[in-house]
Specification:
By secondary structure, the protein is of the alpha/beta class. The chain folds into 2 domains: about 270 residues, Aminopeptidase (3-Layer(aba) Sandwich); about 160 residues, Glucose Oxidase, domain 1. Helix content is about 40%, strand content about 25%. Strand 14, helix 11 and strand 15 form a beta-alpha-beta unit. It starts with a helix and ends with a helix.
């Protein structure tokens, strides 16, 4: 009889707890949808500050404004975390064209981040088209030396989650130019990493291997890539050449900052749940989805908690990381300081996949048993808001270094709908007008809800 009474009491308690959780989460969504400030904050960031490439005047302005914004919300602590970051500049607008006999056909290109420039007169050479790094290796120096290598590996349209397609194609941009240089190439052009067919070149970082000659590298739009590929197939190689001129350069490192705000935990102030995105952006546009939406959602999480009167047990921290795009120095610095200060991070959530309709969260390295438990506990609470897809997957670039100093931390990625993100990612189209207010605020509420559940119940499920 005592066992039955105990079981009954536990069931009643669990039911009551879930009802309370449901009401709390509803309050978060009401606050976000009725009084949400992420969209207006994003407008200011995009329109009054604009591009925020690390080391730039825009990045410096963004840091000052972000700290002021956090201060205005009355968080328990707001501070800057110093970090040295790369300072790459694009210079004058790039120039490129296909040379077909006596014809010059202009094509849209954009220098890859961290690329070197060309000589002042540009470079002109025959073009070798490859679809992968493996194909590059099979050709060797005898074919490639003195040429411009054209990496034309297309975005694989079969991936439902477009981030997987980006990752698969991304290696040609990140590693391709340096790989081509090993075989004597004098330049590299890379097909933009996007499922879209348009005339917007998508920039992004490339990396040069140690001991390898640095060659100019640029992204070419998908429309232009198709045109160049078709021309190479129709005509003999010596007839088709490519001209590229760009004046980018890397200047000495610059002092910058991560911007951090927090609400102290009422029971466990030394246990930290971090939510963050990156404040820097590429220089072609306003960095609205990448990652203005992420940082504005992160600070909105703290604002919602405070506005609804929720007192967290653990410290909740919003971090605007600097330099995700071309160096990851902000994330590395944050992890180093966390280790030096012996901070106990129990979870970190990154939002860096755009401000689109929320779908759920991915848990890095999650076991089937953990996923079963987290879905059993929390799926029904998030299901009414269609943010209940709780799966194994990546956490994020900026929070990744935390794993090296605290292996027990759970890294989590916010997963919005991915279908439109890589249409505008790293392009001139990444502007405020392409962000939907309701989608942005739904995402902020979803992240707040997960932070709440972790704060209440932990992750030892």
């Amino acid at each position: 009889m005592k066992k039955l009474l105990l079981l009954s009491a536990l069931l009643i308690s669990a039911t009551f707890s879930q009802a309370q959780d449901s009401l709390t989460i509803r309050r978060f969504y009401d606050e976000a949808l009725v009084n949400g400030q992420a969209y207006d904050n994003l407008r200011y960031l995009c329109k009054q500050i604009g591009q925020r490439l690390s080391g730039s005047a825009g990045a410096e302005k963004a840091v000052a404004w972000s700290k002021k914004l956090m201060d205005s919300y009355g968080f328990d602590k707001v501070y800057l975390q110093e970090v040295m970051v790369p300072h790459w500049v694009r210079g004058a607008k790039e120039e490129a064209y296909i040379i077909d006999g006596n014809k010059k056909i202009p094509v849209p290109v954009a220098a890859l981040g961290m690329s070197v420039g060309t000589p002042a007169s540009g470079i002109t050479a025959n073009v070798i088209e490859v679809k992968s790094l493996k194909e590059l290796e099979t050709l060797g120096e005898s074919v490639i030396k003195g040429k411009i290598v054209f990496f034309n590996g297309a975005f694989d349209q079969r991936f439902i989650e477009t981030g997987a397609g980006y990752g698969a194609a991304g290696v040609q941009r990140f590693a391709g130019p340096s790989a081509a240089a090993k075989y004597g190439a004098i330049g590299a052009i890379v097909r933009s990493i996007t499922p879209a067919l348009d005339d917007y070149p998508h920039t992004g970082a490339t990396a040069y291997a140690d001991g390898v000659n640095k060659i100019p590298a640029a992204a070419i739009s998908t429309v232009a890539a198709n045109k160049l590929s078709a021309m190479l197939k129709l005509r003999k190689l010596p007839l088709i050449k490519f001209y590229l001129k760009q004046s980018c350069q890397t200047l000495p490192d610059v002092k910058s900052y991560n911007v951090i705000g927090e609400i102290k935990g009422s029971e466990n102030p030394n246990r930290i749940i971090t939510v963050g995105g990156h404040l820097d952006s590429w220089d072609l546009a306003e960095g609205a989805h990448d990652d203005g939406t992420g940082v504005m959602q992160s600070v909105e999480v703290l604002r919602i908690l405070k506005a609804t009167g929720y007192k967290p047990k653990n410290t909740i921290r919003a971090v605007f990381f600097m330099n995700e795009e071309n160096g990851h120095k902000g994330g590395i610095k944050y992890a180093e300081e966390a280790a030096a200060n012996k901070e106990e991070h129990i979870a970190a959530i990154e939002t860096d996949e755009g401000g689109f309709t929320p779908r759920g969260f991915s848990f890095e390295g999650a076991s089937p048993a953990f996923l079963k438990a987290v879905n059993a506990k929390w799926k029904t609470l998030l299901e009414p808001y269609e943010a209940d897809r709780l799966v194994e997957g990546g956490g994020g670039t900026d929070i990744g270094p935390l794993k090296e100093t605290r292996p027990a931390i759970r890294l989590i990625g916010f997963r919005p709908d991915s279908q439109r993100y890589f249409d505008i990612h790293h392009t001139p189209n990444d502007v405020f007008e392409n962000v939907n207010k309701r989608e942005l605020h739904l995402g902020a509420a979803a992240i707040t809800s997960l932070v709440y559940l972790i704060d209440q119940y932990g992750l030892n499920l």
